[in-house]
Structure formats: structure tokens, C-alpha cells
């Protein structure tokens, strides 16, 4: 029995270590310049087009939606704004820039104030159930103890992970 086992083990090792199954990465002619060397490899243009927010359209239907190119009205309006800005004097431009900066700051302050309760300080932690908090704490303790990988810590890690699993199952059953 031992002879058959060792014979199959040796044959598997020999089959897996043969060069027949080794990887050959540059056999394919995907980039002809690559075969001649790395000095003259041509980079191709990106296939992905940049995202233009004006052209994004959302729909619940399962059909393709074609968007129109930029309308002439938007290009005309942009040209008019450029012309009026270029006709302004230095003080008018400075006041316009200050007004735009304050408007942008107010807009970002309003946006961050709306998102602040979910992200600031410990508020995100307060939304968790007590059992889920304990499961996360014991899971973190167990993981750190496993990373240390010394015999007493392995026992501590196993116990902490089991306790964390109990709290997680307790929380999961109530959901």
C-alpha cells in the first residue's frame, strides 16, 4: 500500500513540475512591438471615455438611451459668460471670485452638515446594537491575538472569537 501511495505521489510531483505546464507569457501577438523589445512599445489610447455629468441619464427601463450632444444654447451661454468676464475690470473680477468662493463654501458646508451626523465622532458607533458592538470588539481582540501567534495568545484568540461569534449569532437571530 505504501508503494502505491509513494508511486502516485512521485508521479504527481513529476507531472506538476514539468516544463510542459509552465506559463509562457509572451507567446501571443497582442502587441507586436512587445516582441521586439520594450523600447518601442506603443501605448494605445484609453478605451474608456471620460465621464461627462451633463450626459448622464438614469432610467428604470431596460433599453439603451441616447443622449444628445451639447446643445448650442449651452455653448452660446458659456461664450457669453467668457466675454462678460473678459470685459470686467480687475475689481469686478475680484468681487466675482470672492462671491463664487463664498457660494461654494456655503454649498459644501451645507452638504457636509447633512452628512455630519452619520460620520462625525462616535455617532456612527451609536447606531449599532449592543450585541453587534460586543461581537465586533471580541472579533477584533481575537484577530489581533491570532496575529501575535504565540501559544497563550492563540488560546485567548480562540476564546475571544467564540465569544464574538456568540454575540454575533445572538444579534443575527434578533434581526
H/E element order: HHHHHHH
Give the overall shape, derived from the CA principal axes: elongated
Major pleated sheet: none
N/C terminus separation? 54 Å
Relative strand content: under 5%
User: Which stretches are low in confidence, meaning pLDDT under 50 for 5 or more residues running?
Assistant: none
Mean pLDDT: 75
Number of helices: 7
Give the key terms.
single chain, 7 helices, mainly alpha, 175 residues
How do the strands and helices of this protein lay out in sequence?
Blueprint: H1 2-16, H2 32-36, H3 72-87, H4 90-119, H5 123-126, H6 130-148, H7 151-174
Helix pairs in contact: 6-7
Written description of the protein model:
The protein has 175 residues and is an all-alpha fold. It has seven helices and no strands. Among the domains are: 92-120; 128-174. The chain has helices at residues 2-16, 32-36, 72-87, 90-119, 123-126, 130-148, 151-174. The longest helix has 30 residues, at 90-119. It is elongated. The mean pLDDT is 75.
Task: Describe this structure in a few short sentences.
The chain has 175 residues and is mainly α. It is built from 7 helices and no strands. The chain is elongated.
